[in-house]
Write a structure and sequence with these properties.
It comes from Streptomyces kanamyceticus. Belongs to the ABC transporter superfamily. GO terms for molecular function: ATP binding; ATP hydrolysis activity. This protein has two domains: about 220 residues, 3-Layer(aba) Sandwich (Rossmann fold), CATH 3.40.50; about 80 residues, ACT domain (Alpha-Beta Plaits, 2-Layer Sandwich), CATH 3.30.70. Helices cover about 40% and strands about 25% of the residues. The structure holds adenosine-5'-triphosphate (ATP).
Length: about 350
């Protein structure tokens, strides 16, 4: 779908992209990097809106240097910044964008109604955009990117400014753009953690350079750590402690799940094999406490960056960013697990 070869973009004072080579196939792909990593610059080059300084790129098999117009006919674009006219309604604006993409008037109106419904805007679509919440504005921007039924969409930081619920809703919508309509997606974010549930593939850039490009499952392989959660009973008012003691008695080291509220009820231990699962099951049965869950933990994308030493040196900025993202991802995960 997208290929770049030694793609560079230099501004007088900064190199925004530095010999970036990558291949992106169909599906939902996350482009992750700290602010200033070069994500928006890459999207503008891929749309043929800004020329590269060096190297080559193609989108849907079309050369960005010569076929920008054709690419923009077949690709939708949701820009990062607020760019919506405040005085017109979502319907008027999206119909206008559909007409600009070449749809005849009736088709433009029909597609607009369908697309706005799909992104979750109903009666409010007749009100001026100026009175919309950030979440509603993001939905209008998504709708105008989809209205001409593109093969591929570029979504630049679509979760920016949204609260956690709004972010989850937007990520769900993005996933459905692919599953319901078969449209491939390139979505950017400066948060590593939020893309692992949405994307099939993740590309990480820092300082305009490619850090890693892998499928999400490669990033989030299962670990050998088992997370176990049990209930308390009258006989064992602290069921977690009782199980930890029993495991320790069998020579198995454990640690608490974390410092977040509630995470202390999770016990983490290393699974040597099937026998560890059996032992936990038997000890829980002997203690006559309830087993809430026993699952193998998966890596989070951010943990991969925290733990894996890479061959290429990572800039201090990237390391700091990965550490922040790891904390955020872990908090999100622990919150979701409780
Ligand atoms: N037109 C421009 N002129 C000069 N420098 C630019 C221009 N556009 C971008 N840059 C610089 O290029 C670098 C990459 O910017 P870019 O907007 O692509 O990053 P980004 O990853 O999209 O981050 P953000 O989400 O903060 O926009 C930054 O240092 C930015 O200041």
């Amino acid at each position: 779908m997208i290929a770049t070869e030694s793609l560079s973009k230099r501004f007088p004072r900064v190199t925004a992209l530095d010999r970036l080579s990558m291949d992106i196939g169909p599906g939902v792909t996350g482009l992750v990097g700290a602010n200033g990593a070069g994500k928006s610059t890459l999207i503008k080059i891929l749309l043929g809106l800004s020329p590269a300084t060096e190297g080559r790129a193609s989108v849907l098999g079309l050369d960005v240097a010569t076929s920008g117009g054709e690419i923009r006919e077949r690709v939708g674009y949701m820009p990062e910044h607020d760019c919506l006219p405040p005085d017109v309604s979502a319907t008027e604006f999206v119909v206008h964008m559909a007409r600009m993409s070449g749809l005849p008037p009736t088709a433009a109106r029909e597609r607009t109604a369908d697309t706005l419904r799909h992104v979750g805007l109903y009666e409010e679509r007749y009100r001026p955009i100026g009175g919309y919440s950030t979440g509603m504005k993001q939905r209008v921007k998504l709708a105008q990117a989809l209205v001409h039924d593109p093969q591929l969409v570029f979504l630049d930081e679509p979760t920016n400014g949204l609260d956690p619920v709004g972010r989850d809703e937007m990520l769900g919508l993005i996933r459905r753009v692919h599953t319901d309509f078969g449209i491939s997606v390139l979505v950017t974010s400066h948060l590593l953690g939020e893309l692992e549930r949405t994307c099939d593939h993740v590309v990480v850039v820092d300082g305009g350079k490619l850090l890693r490009s892998s499928s999400t499952t490669d990033f989030t392989q299962t670990t050998t750590t088992l997370a176990v959660e049990v209930t308390d009973t009258d006989a064992h008012p602290d069921g977690t402690r009782a199980l930890r003691d029993a495991l320790q008695g069998r020579g198995i080291d454990t640690e608490a799940g974390g410092e977040l509220p509630g995470a202390g009820h999770t016990i983490l231990l290393t699974a040597e094999g099937e026998e560890t699962y059996d032992l936990v099951r038997d000890l829980v049965a002997d203690l006559d406490i309830g087993l809430v869950r026993m699952e193998q933990r998966r890596h989070h994308i951010a943990e991969v960056f925290k733990e894996e030493p890479r061959q290429e040196p990572v800039s201090e900025r990237a390391a700091a960013w990965a550490a922040t993202a790891a904390t955020a991802a872990t908090a999100q995960q622990e919150g979701g697990e409780r």
